[in-house]
Amino acid sequence: MLVPAAARAADPIEIPPWFTETFLDFREDVRDASQAGKRVMVYFGQDGCPYCKALMKAGFGDPSIAAFTREHFVAIALDIWGDRETTWQDGRTLPEKKLAQALRVQFTPTLLFLDEAGKVALRVDGYQPPDRLRTALEYVAGHEETQVAYADYVSRRSAATATEKRSREPFLEAYPVDLPQLLARGRPVMVVVERAGCTECEELHREAFARPEIRQLLANFSVVAVDTAGEGRVALPDGSSIDERLWARLLGAVYAPTMVFLGTDGREIFRAEGYLKPFHVASTLDYVASGAWRTEPSLQRFIQLRADRLRAAGHPVDLWN
Q: In which domain, by residue range, is 243 found?
């Protein structure tokens, strides 16, 4: 997530000392890691980012997670605003900030796990709580990407726990969903992909979607909630009809919750994966609803400008709220 420069300077993120300092030639890093029986994990972050701080403290600060990561990975930290020169797998030489742009890093933290050929075995956009971080690490360390899609791996590993049934919120479309009809309304469609027993999904509805300012932003969308194991029917633009769990798979949603935004032509225009607090949920909705995604390719910069406007208007901005 983006924070103002002053906050970044005043609140540096402490990278664990066991992260590796290299010449940032990732061709060499991948080769050296492979020879040691490890894989490369690239962390993209920024100072002042509360999500990055949580990752370092709650995630990599956990002794068991740290030990597992050190055993199986060469961890390398990059600053999305940094100027250090990097050489990527395709030979491009770019400063850190340009590499982040080239790889379309929209959220911090973002983790890229590289296989022995330098290809991305798994990409984790946004903050993941410790249990989900551990799942990602074990998936890549076990070379599971050659056997099973990450979404299926997570489903198998995550035992769905009973949760209090949530009443259907008024802004949600009911099933069966007629996607062509929704698109014909002339506004974007927001698809929220969820999973039974997902505590982060429950929090999204309880802490974010219940807020009046977010409800106002949701009014700009036709909102559909998709259960990765659901059986509700969905009519697609090509005339076919499928159940919601297959639609979630076709959308390529790896994490729960994931917010996928479709334009009026049915094509995806943006998505947000990973754990988000209400301020960043609101910023993401505003980014799409306002049409800013058409002229500002960086959600990061949009969030900074939005935060500055709110502060100038006398509104407090809490990035972890």
A: 177-312
Report whether 299 contacts 286 (CB < 8 A): no
Q: What gap in Å lies between CA 46 and CA 166, rounded to an integer?
A: 36
Which of 231, 221, 152 lies closest to 191, judged by CA? Answer: 221
The model's pLDDT over 254-283, given as tens digits with 9 standing for 90+, comes to 888 999 999 999 999 999 988 889 999 999
Question: Does the residue 119 lie in any domain?
Answer: yes
**Residue of 250, 254, 189 lying closest to 224 (CA atoms):** 189
Residue pLDDT, tens place only, 40-79? 999 999 998 999 999 999 999 999 999 999 999 999 999 9
pTM beyond 0.90: the answer is: no
Instruction: For residues 146 and 199, state if they share a domain.
Output: no
Residue 200's Cβ-side half-sphere holds a number of Cα atoms within 13 Å equal to 23
Determine how many CB atoms are found less than 10 A away from the CB of residue 241: 12
Residues 191 and 85 in one domain: no
Same domain, 129 and 38: yes
Tokens of 291: 């049409």
End-to-end Cα spacing for the chain: 13
Q: Are residues 105 and 196 in the same domain?
A: no
